[in-house]
Amino acid sequence: MFDSPLSASPYEVLGVAPTADDDELRRVYRLRLRESHPDTGGDSAVFIRVQRAWELIGSPEQRAAFDRSRGSDTEWDAWRSPSPRRDTRPRPTSYGEPGVRRRARYEELVREWADVADPYAPSVVRAAPRELRRLLAEALAEEGTADAVSGLGMGFTLWHGVPVDEGQLDHIVLGPSGLYGVTSADFGGVVGFRGGEITGPSLGHRAPVTTLLAQIRAVAKAARVRFSGALVVLPDDDLSMPVTPLGRVRDLPVAVVRRSVLPTMLRSGMPGARVIGGNELFDIRTRLKQSIRL
Questions:
Q1: pLDDT at site 31
Q2: Could you give all domains of the chain from N- to C-terminal order, each with its CATH number?
Q3: 137 exposed, middle or buried (CB, 10 Å; 0-12, 13-18, 19+)?
């Protein structure tokens, strides 16, 4: 929850200064808990974040441990490029390298912004402009989704970082349950939904669902294939529900899902999605392999 480059700290979630004493911290926590409780008209996602913030800094021991970790340049190794893992389980066929373009751009821009030895040091990441932190957050989101789907099994084929005119389609997943276009996102906080789109104060003018559907259309046209569904994947802590269906948008079912439930959905099939099997599965795989250039 708080290890995203875009995440607010527990102090920021509670709305209290890091120098506040324990009594003030407890008073503000209780106030925020009442304000955000769903039974009193609050937002359940905010309520969860308030609770988890308290879990990190609620006691003097927890607070001291958190404060030490925030001052350490070795604590957040998860921000660095992931190391290859040995895994002998049957895995899906996979093409492309998730996160590589955004990481390269992040490193380039960070070194233009400041003369730094390590662009992934927490002190550097936290001080960087938000647009740079957003690049790193998006790279981490891509890598997290790729890791989540890496255990789907041999019946699936994956493409990561597929170039399109609209940027890149983060992931394409083909399997017996359908053909899915998937975007990985991390907005650093609570999101909402309106009119088939994701909303929230951290999104600005971005429209992730609209962008994803445009990317899917570009791939579908080039490969002459029909997609079964569109999925936006977010960190678990940023969604109050495991799956939020957004209905059919431009005749394609769309849902926003927690990263941890993505593999289960892809195995069982997205509600309302067109199932693919037999010769059609083979034909779609062939068309995508011929048209996608990574």
A1: 92
A2: 10-70 (1.10.287.110), 90-291 (no CATH)
A3: buried
Residue (of 206, 242, 248) closest to 229 by Cα position? 248
Residue 258 β-bridge partners: 234
- DSSP sequence for the chain: ---STTPPPHHHHHT--TT--HHHHHHHHHHHHHHH-GGGT--HHHHHHHHHHHHHHSSHHHHHHHHHHHT-SSTTGGGSPPPP----S---EEES-TTHHHHHHHHHHHHHHS--S-TT-HHHHHHS-HHHHHHHHHHHHHHHHHHHHTTS-TT-EEEEEEEETTEEEEEEEEETTEEEEEEE---SS--EEETTEEE-TTTTT--HHHHHHHHHHHHHHHHT----EEEEEE-GGG-SSSEEEEEEETTEEEEEEEGGGHHHHHHH--TTPPP--HHHHHHHHHHHHHH---
Q: How far apart are CA 95 and CA 92, in angstroms?
A: 10
Stretches where the chain sits below pLDDT 50 are: 73-74
How big is the chain by its Cα radius of gyration, in Å?
Answer: 20
pTM, rounded to two decimals: 0.84
